[in-house]
Design a protein that fits this description.
The complex is a heterodimer. Chain A is built from five helices and eleven strands, in the order E-H-E-E-H-E-H-E-E-E-E-H-E-E-E-H. Chain A is an alpha/beta fold. The termini of chain B are close together. The chains are: A alpha/beta, B alpha+beta. At the A-B interface, loops of A face helix 1 and helix 2 of B.
Chain lengths: 214, 83
């Protein structure tokens, strides 16, 4: 199985994500922003970084590039898509997941380990966790405050995937830091699971997210 | 015909604006007591079109597709003919 790792100018977590995908035994193919044909891939990760310098809004420029058409085709074929950090912001901008990730309540770049509650195990990326389980994964963002106009719809459709557990470091609505589409196959998360995939990094809780592609 | 376009992008009413809050706090450090600070982005460009309404229609499209995020933003467009 081959998983695509999307690259925009300014993406900087692509190689970390590729390493995490390889750790779970899958092959990686880097895919540039101008490639709209992803037919030979079994899923994609949109990694973190600062695509297009975060100009206009984080993720805005990336959301209108040709590779997004390829990703939308994969979604139609019911293949899994994971957006991490800037990737999550991009999925929000495209509208593949509900809501937006905007400037933190305290507008500083927040880089720290956090405890997260798994609120939903119906996505491929969280299927190996137990509902309510605590996982330890770092965050690193200045624009990660989740906001949506219709929180009730999100709850009704079981689209909340991860929530900050003990403290809400960025002021996200209901401490939400990961949401999915209605199907659960498209998942956007601000925390960086690829930075929690080996003991030497301090946690291996992130591995399950990549096992979701298996 | 050439038109001057200005798009003003602001956060919807009631949305938290951390940038504005930080500006308020910093002004307070200088001894100014200000309230209800807001920040607004202004994008300007020139564009060709047959008439004002055609240009306006295109700019609305730009706002919906790229310049704004309809979840959090309001926008105001002004189109003026360049002599």
């Amino acid at each position: 199985m081959k998983i695509g790792v999307i690259r925009f100018p300014g993406t900087n977590c692509d190689r970390d994500v590729a390493r995490a995908i390889e750790l779970v035994g899958l092959d990686v193919e880097y895919v540039w922003w101008n490639n709209d044909n992803l037919d030979d891939l079994d899923g994609v990760v949109i990694p973190g970084g600062f695509s297009y310098g975060d100009y206009l809004r984080a993720g805005a420029m990336a959301s209108i590039t040709p590779v997004i058409d390829g990703i939308k085709s994969l979604v139609k074929e019911e293949k899994p898509v994971l957006g991490i950090c800037n990737g999550a912001q991009i999925l929000g901008e495209i509208g593949l997941v509900p809501g937006v990730f905007i400037t933190n309540e305290n507008p500083k770049f927040n880089c720290e380990w956090v405890d997260l509650k798994v609120s939903n195990t119906r996505t491929p990326f969280t299927k190996d966790f137990k509902k309510g389980q605590t996982v330890k994964i770092p965050i690193a963002h200045a624009e990660g405050r989740f906001y949506t106009e219709d929180i009730d719809l999100l709850k009704d459709q079981d689209q909340i995937v991860l929530q900050f557990k003990d403290k809400n470091p960025n002021g996200s609505l209901e401490s939400i830091t990961s949401v999915c589409d209605e199907s659960g196959l498209v998942c956007a998360m601000m925390p960086h699971p690829e930075r929690a995939c080996e003991d030497i990094l301090g946690s291996t809780d992130g591995l399950n997210f990549f096992k979701g592609f298996l | 015909m050439l038109f001057n376009v200005e798009v003003k992008i602001s956060l919807k009413n009631g949305m938290l604006n951390p940038e504005a809050t930080t500006i308020e706090r910093s002004l307070d450090l200088l001894g100014y007591d200000v309230n209800n600070a807001k920040t607004i982005d202004i994008i300007t460009f020139e564009m060709d079109g047959d008439d004002e309404s055609e240009v306006n229609e295109n700019v609305v499209d730009m706002c919906e597709r790229l310049l704004c995020n309809p979840v959090i933003h309001n926008y105001e467009i002004s189109v003026t003919a360049l002599d």
